[in-house]
Specification:
Length: 150
């Protein structure tokens, strides 16, 4: 229990400390998010804030996680890093939606096939119980992509 609290405090403090530096760097390099019809903000904002959040979270996970009990955490972290790198690249230089989707599909594949995390049952919702392996994979990918299947 204490390790969870310490992990939260570590991630918060590191992120809180690093965000001003990242924002300053984004302003120097003129890496801004310019509002358009798809954005929710009205003024120009510096990008790359996710780098500080990622650094705080990853450092905290590595420092406080009991890896001997969390065997599949390495696969989740690998997928997490792929998503982070695609997001950072997209912040610096826009990437096509198809390339982003391919990277997300690759990260999801790591989680499904290596960490064995899938939707395995609907627990009676819609009269559906246990799902066969192929359907459980399909439902996982449909639920975690930008392009919903249903």
């Amino acid at each position: 229990m204490y390790s969870i609290i310490l992990a939260f405090i570590t991630a918060f403090l590191l992120t809180f400390r690093v965000i001003p530096s990242v924002i300053h760097l984004a302003k120097i390099k003129k890496i801004y998010d310019i509002p358009d019809e798809r954005k929710s903000h009205d003024e120009v904002k510096p990008r790359l804030g996710g780098i500080a959040i990622f650094a705080g979270l990853l450092f905290s996970i590595i420092l406080w996680s009991p890896f001997q009990y969390l065997g599949d955490l390495q696969y989740i972290l690998a997928a997490f890093i792929i998503i982070f790198l695609i997001g950072a690249k997209d912040d610096i230089e826009p990437i096509s939606p198809l390339k982003k989707f391919g990277a997300e599909l690759f990260a999801a594949s790591i989680i499904v096939f290596f960490a064995n995390i899938r939707i395995t049952s609907f627990y009676g919702v819609f009269g559906i119980g246990h799902l066969p392996f192929i359907l459980s994979i399909a439902f996982y990918f449909c639920d975690h992509s930008y392009y919903k299947c249903f």
